[in-house]
């Protein structure tokens, strides 16, 4: 799987694919597009990001083979209907998959939204109710407006300026808290 370190190869592949369709762009135009695909303002920002990860020797080889991926929190739930109302209806997550070992067994499922994945579990040993997680994100004001428009009867979360970050906290029916945060730098 390619990441930002392969941006020049990605730009070259894009140019070649477009050329097959008689469309031409310069290499620098392709690099700018690739940078935007990674959510960055321009190629210079992406090039700096690539430079941060470069190094030499054994440490560089280790970085090539070692890659940590997203952590997926396990959230303890007790009632599938209440969890569905909160996570699907209110927060707008989608069901990726679910699993039960048999009829009348506890549910374990993965849900996701915009790249964030959570595992919800009815299994007693998987997690402790009352957990807390922080989710960093851009566009927190949009999320706040979306949640306010849903008029969820059990929660009306506010948007708080915490000096350098905006924070919106929600609590599920099982006392698990999610703090959505956007860094503002002020």
Task: Describe this protein with a few key phrases.
VOC_core, 23% strand, 2,3-Dihydroxybiphenyl 1,2-Dioxygenase, domain 1, Bleomycin-R, Glyas_Bleomycin-R_OHBP_Dase, alpha/beta, four-stranded mixed sheet, 186 residues, 2 domains, 8 strands, Bleomycin resistance protein, antibiotic resistance
Structure notes:
Keywords: Antibiotic resistance. This protein has helices at 7-20, 27-37, 43-52, 57-65, 80-90, 140-150; strands at residues 74-76, 94-99, 108-113, 116-121, 132-136, 159-161, 165-171, 177-183. The protein has 186 residues and is an alpha/beta fold. Helix 1 packs across helix 2 (27-37). The chain contains six helices and eight strands, in the order ααααβαββββαβββ. It starts with 6 loop residues before the first helix and ends with a strand. It is globular. Strands 1-4-3-2 form a four-stranded mixed sheet, covered by helices on one side.
